Amino acid sequence: MTSLRLATVHPGEPEIFHSLQGEGISLGRPSVFVRLSGCNLACLWCDTPYTWYFTGHNARHRGCETFVRRENSLTLDIAEVARRIAEFGCRHIVFTGGEPLLQQPALAALCALLGPDYHIEIESNGTVALTAAFDAHVDQLNLSPKLAHSGNAADLRVNETSLAGYARDPRAWFKFVVASPEDADEIDALASQYAIAAERILLMPEGTSPAVLQQRAHWLAPLCLDRGWRFTDRLHIHLYGDTRGT
């Protein structure tokens, strides 16, 4: 049977949980989150480094601490994943990571097992194109293209072919993590290059504490008003703090 590589809440327990969507266009919506392990990027400020920053990784992360792979990820049969999802009785599913689109064959098989009654939402960095098999199951794409301050090289964080395809996809929303007002110029350039309409762009302050989010919101909110972009907070940080499984 097909399996998925999942992140863990603690060793041996997969990070599959029921919560309110904390970010993006679905903010506040009750959802079942399935957090996958593994990523093709290495963001300096990533708030889920335990999904990829394993011992021996040669990238940098501001937290400096690397994680033991076997304690922070596990493989689970898709039938067991489907069972755990169904237990919550919630039909809105969010596949997140890490980068969930690295495991599309297993995700497609899982969605086929779940059936057509679920709304499938994806959180992705936008560098990996949808496969035909998984595309048929996806209802919403929350894409977060990374900017220069992420620390990733430009040729890694921007895949022109996949980003151009997503820009034409009506299911796609583009959420940019913003650390300073100067990031707006980089977002403007990407929006212009890929013809992304302003109403499909959301800006979110980078930060893992309510205090930092609030401080950055003071200049980010008027910036969004000026450019015609949407603002999104990080609701889960305000409600639960920077913790797993929330």
Automatic annotation (TrEMBL):
Its cofactor is [4Fe-4S] cluster; Mg(2+); S-adenosyl-L-methionine. This is 7-carboxy-7-deazaguanine synthase. S-adenosyl-L-methionine binds at residues 45-47, 98, 144-146. Belongs to the radical SAM superfamily. 7-carboxy-7-deazaguanine synthase family. It is an enzyme of class 4 (lyase). Binds 1 [4Fe-4S] cluster. The cluster is coordinated with 3 cysteines and an exchangeable S-adenosyl-L-methionine. Binds 1 S-adenosyl-L-methionine per subunit. Its EC number is 4.3.99.3. Substrate binds at residues 20-22, 35, 96. It comes from the Bacteria. It catalyses: 6-carboxy-5,6,7,8-tetrahydropterin + H(+) = 7-carboxy-7-carbaguanine + NH4(+). Residues 26-242 form the Radical SAM core domain. [4Fe-4S] cluster binds at residues 39, 43, 46. The keyword Translocase does not apply. Homodimer. It holds the Pfam family Radical_SAM. Gene3D superfamilies: Aldolase class I. The keyword 4Fe-4S applies.
